[in-house]
């Protein structure tokens, strides 16, 4: 069989078709590369943001340093704990904590409560005792006197940079406060001996501070360290 010879105009048509296909391939590759680069950039930013949020979540939070209870009439058969002072500070390396958005969740054997700080109250349950206080459980302190049954109060124990005020109490590095709870008002009765109490101080961001103790079998002093 003999071969058919291409004419000059046929070779030109084939050359243009190949050029068009080549340009199309280049365009598709360019678009694919652009989409790939955009996707990689988005994922990288997303991963960075997630990592930053995770780091903040892990490092931030509040720490319960001590829990003190107050017994008005120790050494009596009817003795019970009527007040709690939960002393807290920011976790090491943690961020500032706005105490107006913090909640205390507290349970005994019969009841679970959620308590908050009322920064909108006319008479706020806030006492700045950073220069010293003779009695942490003094009823005349605003942190006790204006405390409602669903609220916690604040007694400032340490605040070098004055970041804590009654309307905007922000806990930051180096600060220490006592969160006050009127147990009798909140639970309808005080905590009796051998009672299981648990809960947490939960900030808006970060790890909560854990509350976990069993009240002593007998109350012999007015102030008792529970945790």
UniProtKB/TrEMBL annotation:
Compartment(s): Archaeal flagellum
A Gene Ontology molecular function term of the record: structural molecule activity
Highest taxon in the source lineage: Archaea
GO cellular component: archaeal-type flagellum
Pfam families, A to Z: Flagellin_arch-type
InterPro entries registered for this protein in UniProt: Flagellin/pilin_N_arc, Flagellin_arc-type
Family: Belongs to the archaeal flagellin family.
Function (record text): Flagellin is the subunit protein which polymerizes to form the filaments of archaeal flagella.
UniProt-listed NCBIfam families: arch_flag_Nterm, PRK08541.1
Name of protein: Flagellin
Originating species: Ferroglobus placidus (strain DSM 10642 / AEDII12DO)
Lineage: Archaea, Methanobacteriati, Methanobacteriota, Archaeoglobi, Archaeoglobales
